[in-house]
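User: Assemble these into one structure.

Assistant: Restating your components, then the assembled model:
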Amino acid sequence: MNDKLSHFVPKLIRSIELDGECYVELQDLLANFENASVMDVKMGCRTYEERELDCALRESKLRHDMYDKMVEIDENEPTANEKTLRAITKPRYMIWRETVSSTASLGFRVEGMRLQDGSVDKNFKTTKDEEQIAEAFMRFASSKKIRLKYLNRLYDLRRALMQSKFFISHELIGSSLLFVHDNNEAGIWLIDFAKTHLLPDNTKVTHRRKWELGNHEDGYLIGVDNLIRIFETTTSRTSERESTDRGSTNQIHYQQDRVETYEPSYLAFRIPAGK
Ligand SMILES: Nc1ncnc2c1ncn2[C@@H]1O[C@H](COP(=O)(O)OP(=O)(O)O)[C@@H](O)[C@H]1O
Ligand SMILES: [Mg+2]
């Protein structure tokens, strides 16, 4: 991939066919880390494609299952009419669901994280409060040194995105940033392009403008801006673990214009093609 983003995506090793299915073998992003902590952050202000909403809008069926899912999360959300019907439409559900997490408001949501001690936390479906998110980042990366490395990587990523020919010509829906660190290093890569599509002819996006059906805006850069802002707040704080273990992190400063050269090795990771 000859693009400004090439240092931010796993390398393609090869395509292979297995039992009639096409797979791609990708660089294992965890290969250069020792006992890595991993966090998947789903980017964008919506996680459904325009055509999915378009299809849902054509469906006039009222959905009881979606009403049930809605009241399970927030019993005050349905309107009086919806409460009488005990049902909602699919587009209503799709649009509302993005407001439950930080997707609609911040342009990203934490999908899950695995910490060094092996614990897994996927309990972020209703996390939208910035303070809660900052606390989750502090838990994920308890060392300030590592949070600063992430922040630097995010600055580099934003600059690369804004110069990338791939990014300007594509709509990225449901794609993630994979955060990986151990005690010494930290990296962030773009993964999961299952719903990434070339923009239709004559359609231009900023990745920051408000989305309206038909304009294809995905809010990706809104998410990156907010991630940067929240990581910035965490780098001026000390985590609980650090306050009991006074490290030598005070001399570390972030540089906004550093060139990122970090590249892990090429080990195989298999996912189905089209993912
Ligand atoms: N190249 C990679 N190297 C290491 N881990 C990866 C890589 N790609 C994906 N993963 C892991 O697999 C998970 C799921 O991958 P993803 O491509 O998002 O598929 P999906 O969301 O469709 O299951 C990610 O959250 C990440 O933990
Ligand atoms: Mg994914």
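The pocket of adenosine-5'-diphosphate (ligand 1) is lined by residues 10, 26-30, 38, 40, 176, 178, 191-192, 194, 269, 271, 275 (CB under 6 Å).
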